[in-house]
Amino acid sequence: MSSKHDLLRKKTKLKHDLLNNIDNQLKCLMANLPCSIFFCLPDEDHTDLFLSDGTYDLTGYKPSELLNRSDLSFKKLMLEDYGSRIEDDLKIKKAIADKSTYQAVYRIKTKSGKIKWVYEQGKGIYSEGEEAIAMVGFVSDLTVQKQSELALKKENLLLRSRIKERYRFGDIIGKSPAMQKIYELILKAGITDANVMIFGETGTGKELVARAIHDAGTRSKHPYIPVNCSAITEGLIESEFFGHKKGAFTGAHSDKKGFLSQADIGTLFLDEVGDIGLSMQTKLLRAIEDGSYMPVGDSIVRKSDFRIISATNKNIESLVHDGKMRQDFYYRISVIPITLPPLRERKEDIPLIIEEMLEREESGRSVWQLLSKQMDLLLDYDWPGNVRELKNVINRIKVEGSLDFMKNAPFNFKQMDDSSIDAKYDPEKMGYKNMLDAIEKKILLRTLKKTNWNKSRTASLLKISRTVLSGRIDRLKLKKYYKNDLNG
Prior knowledge:
The protein has 21 helices and 14 strands.
């Protein structure tokens, strides 16, 4: 009997020691966990009944400072600006009612005043009557992860900002696929010293692109010399480009540096390069080939390390074909050709360009409100003068406070409806084909008159080939109007 009692006593002691050992291990485990283990009441203040030693590392408060207090509990450390107490209370109450686990992310203010992000997870403890009598869970430090998350968001915002900046390149505005290709060409041209020729209609921004290429390249810190070739008379062009010595000709009262000298180590931008005469093209060829030139009236050969970017709205191939431009000169200055799209081919950029124009103006908001309501009118227009014309129109709108003048704008063919077609265009009397011919004749004559019968320009405005235009002029017998238009 005694031996049975001793055996039972030994088993009881072993069980007690084992439970104590488990309890000690659990306490040791909780003490070393990098988080706060909590046991609290489900009351309004979440009165803390137990907090693990990790609470001190997390909050700066010893567990004993927060236990059984309504004025200072773990919940009181939460900042209301990130996750309101009401929302968290509702979340916890719902989880307790559903007997499910809840999660919450919020900020706390530690004893030292430091702000930390924390993650809380917990669940309810229930009586036999299934009434919540306590809550148990843990709170861990989420600061590092949250800071990484916020940094990533900041980086994404910066990336989006840079992408938005891609909608502009220097002073060039445009987010259309056509302009994205231009931006790529600008970057590629910027990293080389090859000569660039920019093609494009009047007002497409050729000089802006030239400047952007210069700024994107290794010569950006050196001179950028723009030259309007059409504004220089034939007699002065050599002196303007090469410079001259004092006394070289009448009026040369002192030495003068030319464009080539000014552009040394930099960029020489030749606007309207098609207006340079054959004689000057020949003289420029040597300078383009090896940088050598001689000022007017001098006997010493000078050197200049310059890069040429040229621009024109003329058909250069026609100039070469007609003998007005040397072929070798053309090849030298157009190693990298860039053709700018007209505004009518990138109309999605119109709102962006307008917004940029109005952004910094006091009246910008009211003008934008007016334009946004009638944007279709602007998008339907073909903009023969391109961005330059758009800017002029916006400036006129700012003065007049209306778009009424646009309703009668030339080339606004999409606005043509029954009210704009003359009463004589009656399909019942004329027949469908004759009526279309009459309308087409009116459009062609109006456009030809606008361009002073320049077929290339007219074909470009009407988005047809020059061959097709010539065929329609012949078919509709329009040549008889030619002399009348030229004579006014």
